[in-house]
Amino acid sequence: MYWVWMIIVSLIAGIIFGPLARLVLPGKQNISLGWTILGGGIGAFIGGLIAYFLGVKDTSGPDWIQYLIQVICAAIVIAIISSRNSKARTA
């Protein structure tokens, strides 16, 4: 049940982390809002896993390190989606 909850929370986090990731990426990303949210959700899930395995997920206060890892992962996923989308448009 933990993994199902983590997937649901990651997709909800994608609503926040996706646009944040696009803000930290240089240039313009030609992807839709749906891809931004999905990429943010995937990045949040991967970042949550990384934070879990590093042991920084459960702290007594806000999990700032986990959030930072999730935004970085979301930016990487969105950059990959954006680069694939630009290659598809030029082909």
TrEMBL record:
Domain of life of the organism encoding this protein: Bacteria
Bilayer disposition of the protein: Multi-pass membrane protein
Membrane spanning stretches: 6-25, 32-52, 64-82
Residues annotated as signal peptide: none
Swiss-Prot/TrEMBL keywords: Cell membrane, Membrane, Transmembrane, Transmembrane helix
InterPro entries: Transgly_assoc (IPR007341)
Any one Pfam family match given in the protein's UniProt record, by short name: Transgly_assoc
Main location class: membrane
Annotated compartments: Cell membrane
Presence of keyword Cell membrane: yes
A cellular component term, taken from the record's GO annotations: plasma membrane
Family of the protein in this entry: Belongs to the UPF0410 family.
UniProt protein name: Transglycosylase associated protein
Organism: Kribbella pratensis
Lineage, uppermost ranks: Bacteria, Bacillati, Actinomycetota, Actinomycetes, Propionibacteriales
